[in-house]
Write a structure and sequence with these properties.
about 200 residues; five-stranded parallel beta sheet; 10 helices; about 10% strand
Length: about 200
Amino acid sequence: MQMKIKRALLSVSDKTGIVELGKFLVEQGVEIISTGGTMKTLHEAGLPVTYVSDVTGFPEIMDGRVKTLNPKIHGGILAVRSNREHMAALAQHQIKPIDLVVVNLYPFQATIAKAGVTENEAIENIDIGGPAMVRASAKNFNDVIIVTNPVHYQQLIATLAEYGDVALQKRKMLAQEAFEHTAEYDAAIANYLAKQLLTDK
């Protein structure tokens, strides 16, 4: 079995199972890129992790509002591997492909469910970089595996251990689920703001 996944980006709000997945990937020789809390969790488990800022060459700014919105990340996700121009652009700009993206979003729904939460607190829990990575990965499902739900980690580990890759139909299913994830997330934000507008009157 030859592992076709060389590089993975892990950035999750829900840390369930992420250490086990990270350990498996490291054992398979996969480079892990990560951010903030996820990176801390993986580091504490003794796993080698590349900080996203070391990939982008740019620090996290504006209280973490801007960290993964960078061509070094999105170029690595969106490049079509069979497109020579895309691969030439990666080489020209020294961007490495990202083959696996494991992302779930800031807990907006959980935040607004808390008693006494302010509008500012709710707004700060609107994820921007996360949905961008999820959507980019899902768009490029032919070349990138996107996982947004920890329930899939065990099957992912088993599949990669046996085959070194994930079949196209499964990639497409994960992409469809990813778009559902971002759609539900945006709907929750839109509904929250609609309610805020009613109370503003």
